[in-house]
Amino acid sequence: MYVDGSGPKVGSGFFLGEILTTIPLPADEVKRSRAGCGKCSKCMTACPTNAFVGEHVLDARKCISYLTIENKGSIPHELREPMGNRIYGCDVCQQVCPWNKFEWGDIAGSPLFGQVDLSVSAPKLQDLLLMSEDSFLQTFSSSPIKRIGLARFIRNVAVAAGNSRNKLLVPVVEEALRAWAGKDEMVAEHLEWAKSRLMAASGEEEATKKEGTQGGETKGEEQRRTE
Ligand code: SF4
Ligand code: SF4
What we know:
Helix content is about 50%, strand content about 0%. The protein has about 230 residues and is mostly helical. Keywords: 4Fe-4S, Iron, Iron-sulfur, Metal-binding. InterPro entries: 4Fe4S_Fe-S-bd, 4Fe4S_Fe_S_CS, QueG.
């Protein structure tokens, strides 16, 4: 992907803008070739939700950036697990694009915004789950995250919590559920989903532990038999 006249080497890190004018400008030719991409398909294979449904064709409804930012409703169940721990946007397809290496190089942190504080790039889910309206507005007062509002934000955090397999989050999710039940059905449903995922993960962990212990006893018994 590249901007005409600049060549592919500039990569894809752009802020888009528009100028409204009455000047009669000639329209650019629309190019739909794979110029610049060659045989590469890294973005298509790296996308966590398989949002690319063909070459140069993106089903935006599957894109995590859409799901976590623009989408005002519920996140489809089948897309929740592949979202992993992304709670606001996704840049995977940008990060894997070889053309971006020229501009972004080996920058640690965000290629577009440079070094980002850990409290922003990797916040603690338990703190986010229990955010109040006031703390949300205060924390994100100068961030675009503010625009999605607290309810959509907690919806996204609930999905990340459900995917975390961290059983220590169960009581936190339950506390969040008490705060949101009766207040916002959509948020409550996502928190319920998170709770059931965490309980299932905790059950699996216990079962694996038990199997390990039983396996150990069997080995011990075998050893005693051969002594
Ligand atoms: S931003 Fe993420 S989810 Fe969206 S198309 Fe790119 S890799 Fe896929
Ligand atoms: S990763 Fe970059 S070069 Fe490769 S197909 Fe995607 S846009 Fe083209």
